Amino acid sequence: MEGWSSTHVSSRPPHRQNTRPTMRDVAERAGVALVTVSRVVNGVGTVREETAERVMAAINAIGYQRNELARSLRPGQNSMTIGLLLGDLTNPFYASLAKAAVEVANRAGYAVLLSTADEDPEVERRAVGELIGRRVAGLIIVPDQGDHAFLNEINGHDHVPIVFVDRPATGAEADVVLVDNEDGGRKATQHLIDQGHRRIAILGAPSYYSTGRRLRGYRKALRRSGITPDSNLVVTLRRGTTEEASAATHTLLTSADPPTAVFSTTGFLTEGVLRACRQLQTSVAIVGFDDFKLADMLPTPVTVVTSDTEELGRHAARLLLDRIDGDDAPSRRTVLPVQLIARGTGEIGTQ
Amino acid sequence: MEGWSSTHVSSRPPHRQNTRPTMRDVAERAGVALVTVSRVVNGVGTVREETAERVMAAINAIGYQRNELARSLRPGQNSMTIGLLLGDLTNPFYASLAKAAVEVANRAGYAVLLSTADEDPEVERRAVGELIGRRVAGLIIVPDQGDHAFLNEINGHDHVPIVFVDRPATGAEADVVLVDNEDGGRKATQHLIDQGHRRIAILGAPSYYSTGRRLRGYRKALRRSGITPDSNLVVTLRRGTTEEASAATHTLLTSADPPTAVFSTTGFLTEGVLRACRQLQTSVAIVGFDDFKLADMLPTPVTVVTSDTEELGRHAARLLLDRIDGDDAPSRRTVLPVQLIARGTGEIGTQ
DNA sequence: TTGTAAGCGTTATCAA
DNA sequence: TTGATAACGCTTACAA
C-alpha cells in the first residue's frame, strides 16, 4: 500500500506544514541527490564544478537556506547558539555586558539567546531550563544569590560550559570573570581619606558578592589609615534601589554625627545619594562604584571607580567560546582592574 | 545483516555524542515505549496513572529535558523562539525596547534570539539570515535605512511574521509600531514658541524616518505661529553622534544671528547640545526628543518630549505573538503618543 | 491504555 | 564523483 518506496515522489506530501525549501527541494530542482546538495552547501567532499554550479543555481532560485535546527540534531554538531542570562537591561551595566558578549559571539558565528532573570532564583532556574532545552552550546550567567548547585550537572556531566560574570555562583564550580571589587572599594575609600575625610559612610546593596568585597576594601583602607570604623556608617540596604539609597542618605546626613563623605557601591545607589543631597540642599563628598552617563555633567561632576564593562562581556564570551571549542583546563577566575576617575564630588573637602 | 529490527537494542550505540538523556533513555528506564514518554511529557493522549508516575520517576532520576530543537523539526510545530534585531544596546532606547520585548516573549514561553546590526545594512541582512536559519517563529526589527524588500519573501511566502519598531522599513510591508514623531516635533517646537522664542534651531540625525517626521512637526508648529522658517537653523548631521551635535551647536551659537532655542531630535544629540553649552558657558532654551536618566539632575533640568519606550517593545512583542498565533489581518500601524515634560531648559526665555 | 512505524531536514557512512 | 541509507530526538497517525 505504500507507494512512496517504489514510486519516485517528486512533490511534497500534501500535509506539509513548514514551508521553507529543504535540501530535497534543491536536489529535485538541480536533478541531483540530496546528499550532493549537502556537500555543496557545506563545502565538504568532492563535487564536480559543473554539478556544484547547478546546485548553487537551484539554491538561489528557490531561496534555500540551511535549517540549523535540523543540522544541530546530528551527533557531534552543536547548536551554534549560546545563552545569556542576566538582569534588567535597563541597567547600563547589563546592557554593555550584553552588547559586548553578543558582538563577540556573533562574530564567531554564534547566535545568542537572551534571557533576563530579575533577581529571582526561581525565574533564573526556569530560564536556564529553557535555554538548555534549546540545546545552547554554552551559558553566560550573571548569577543571583541562592544555591546554584543545579548548574554543576549542566556544566559537568552535560558538557555545557558555563561562565559566570560579575560574581561567582554559590554552590557551582565554573569559570568566573570579575572586576576587582576589593581594590575598587579600597581605591574609593582611600581617595576620600586622602581628601581629609575620616567619617566615611558606605552604602551597600544586599549582601551580594560584590558588595561584600567592596566593603572589605573599604574596611582595609580605613584600617590602613588608622581610622576606627563606625558601624553606624555602614548601611546595607534591603533591595538596593535608588529610592532606598536616597532615604538612607537622608537619614545619615541628618543624624547627630553625620559623615562627611559617602562611598556608594552601585550606580543606582549613587543616583540616590545625589538625589538626597539635592533635596537637602547639602553636599557631601561622594565616590561611586560604576561610571554612568552624564556623571561629568552634573552640578558637581561625580567621582567614580569603574572598570571596563564591555571588556567584561567580551572576555566572558571569548572564554566561553574557548570552552565550547574543547578547552577543558581547570576553572579560571579572571579579575579585571578598576580605576578611579576624579571629577569633583570626591574632592569636596572636610569643612 | 541488520540486527536492529529483530534484536531489541537496549543500550546506546557507542558513537553517541550528544550526552543529554533522550526520551528513549527515559523509556528504557521506565520500561515503556518511547511514545508513552512523549505522551507524559506533553500531557496528551491517555496514560494510566501508575505508568505516568513510573515515567515521571525515570525523568527525574536521569534529569531528562525535552529537546526543543528536535521537537520543532516536526511539521506543524514552531520553534518557540523569536528574533530581535536592533541597534547598539548601549543606547538606552534599544535597551528598554529589548527588555520589554524579552519580558513579553518569555512570559508567553518564547525564547529570544538577540542580534545587533549596528546601522549596517549588510550586517543586518546577514543577521536576518542567521535568525531565519534557526527558524525563528517571528522577527522584531528596528530597520536601518536601505532597501528591505528581501524581507517581503520571509514575511509573505515563508510565513514568518515581522514587526518593525520605531520606523517602517523601505520596500517591506509589515506591521509597524511607531511613536508619534510629528506630534512630538510639533509639541517640542510649540513649547518653545510659547516661551517667546522665534529663532528656533533644529538638530537632526541623518535623514532617517524619525528625523524627517520630527522636522515636519517642527515646520508645522512654526508655520502655524506665522514664523518664517530659517534654513540656517535646520541642521542635519551626517552621523548623528554626540560629538557632531556638540560641534554643530557650537557653530550655531557663535554665528552672527544665533538661535535662542534648540530642538534636538535624539538623546545623543541633546547630550551634545548640553556639552556645547557648558563649554561655551552659555545657555539656550533646549527641548530634546527622548527622555534620559538624570535629565532632571543636571544644572538646568532638561525639558523633553518622550514616549513610553517599554510600551513600544511590549506592544511590538504582543503584536508579533498574535501574528504567530495566526492573526492574518492586513498590516497594522500603531502610533504611540508623545508627551512633553517641562523641566527647565525649555523654559529659558528670550533675553 | 499502550505500542509500531514513519518522517521532520540534516549529515556520516558506505557502496557504486 | 555521486548516491542510497541510516540516524539525530521528537510527534502524529494508526494498530493492537
Written account of the structure:
The structure is a homodimer of 351-residue chains. By secondary structure, chain A is of the alpha/beta class. The first copy, chain A, folds into three domains: 2-9 and 75-179 and 309-336, 3-Layer(aba) Sandwich (Rossmann fold), CATH 3.40.50.2300; 23-66, lambda repressor-like DNA-binding domains (434 Repressor (Amino-terminal Domain), Orthogonal Bundle), CATH 1.10.260.40; 181-307 and 339-347, Response regulator (Rossmann fold, 3-Layer(aba) Sandwich), CATH 3.40.50.2300. Chain A has helices spanning 23-30, 34-42, 49-62, 68-71, 92-107, 121-133, 150-155, 181-194, 209-224, 242-253, 267-280, 309-324, and strands spanning 81-86, 111-116, 138-141, 162-165, 175-179, 200-204, 234-236, 261-264, 285-289, 303-306, 333-336, 339-341. In chain A, helix 1 (23-30) packs across helix 3 (49-62), helix 5 (92-107) runs parallel beside helix 12 (309-324) and helix 10 (242-253) packs across helix 11. Chain A is elongated, with a radius of gyration of 28 Å. Chains A and B meet through helix 4, helix 5, strand 2, helix 6 and helix 11 of A and helix 4, helix 5, strand 2, helix 6 and helix 11 of B. Strand 2 (111-116) of chain A pairs antiparallel with strand 2 (111-116) of chain B. Chain A binds a DNA duplex (16 and 16 nucleotides) through residues 2, 4, 13, 16-18, 22-24, 32-36, 38-39, 42, 44-48, 51, 66-77. Chains A, B: This is LacI-family transcriptional regulator. Chains A, B: One of its GO terms (molecular function) is transcription cis-regulatory region binding. Chains A, B: Residues 21-75 form the HTH lacI-type domain. Chains A, B: Keywords: DNA-binding, Transcription, Transcription regulation.
